[in-house]
Amino acid sequence: MNKNLKEITDWLSSVIGTQNFNLEPLREEASSRKYFRISTDEKTFVLVDNSENKEQAAKFLYSSKLLINSSVNIPETYAFSEDLRFMLIQDLGEHTLDAPSDVDDKEILLKALKQLSLIYFCDQDILKSCTKNSLFEQTEAFSEFCLEQGCNENEIKALESLREQLVEDLLNQQFIPVHNDFERRNLMIYRNELFVIDFQDLNVGPIGIDLASLLFEHDMDYPKELLEEVLSIHIRNSGLQIEADEMMNHIMVALSHRSMRIVGTFNNYFKNGKLLNRKKDIKKFLSRICLGLGYLEKPQLKIIEKIL
């Protein structure tokens, strides 16, 4: 038994009171965390190994308290190690909602937006807020990606101007608590209720961020009529004082910025030999940038289309 596995099994045995369990690795995520399904004769759990980033574990535990206080459906945390390396949490099953589901898209979106409304009411006074610098830095790696794709000096300057414009537009949006990765791979149906997972990046940010993640996810293309319907319901049910057209503009700004951030982040992962199974998603996120820039009538759209 290697040292890492022994540390996992020793801690787990001390928590659940038995050495009679099976340990199964779960899917790789775009983070340094590792996930395992733990099966005993009576119950299953999910074990999270934060060996490379214990700060994320602290953020997860802190965010979970805020979300519970706001009545958001999240997995229960049963135990965590003193050094925060290990956490034992509720097992919500096999499939996130990016996999085929018996639940129709409208129902999923409405259930998700209901949870998003509850996230809005988290205590934002004690959450870290996005800043101009942090938002601008998030898309820095995208510029490097574009250079590697053969963009010339003038095109890079135009994209730098776009990065600045998007940040200014984001700063003009209403700032509220946001999940920061509110897409279907971070949503699960458990006992007919929708649950939110991977919420450790909860902070205060532009209102368009989570709506862009959900409504214009890279693997999902919803009919325009469905998007308009669920967005209208969400604005009304959340008590937001904003017109649907203005909200859609906010979403498209956030979609462009978010997709640029993801392309740059993935590109860095790939260069380090990580998450190579997600290479096919680069074109999908570039297409989402094109969608956002086209809606916003940004001239830099032509540069992204050339890369695509």
Automatic annotation (TrEMBL):
Domain Aminoglycoside phosphotransferase: 23-230
Cross-referenced InterPro entries: Aminoglycoside_PTrfase, Kinase-like_dom_sf
Pfam families, per the entry: APH
SUPFAM superfamilies hit by this protein: Protein kinase-like (PK-like)
Protein name, as recorded: Aminoglycoside phosphotransferase domain-containing protein
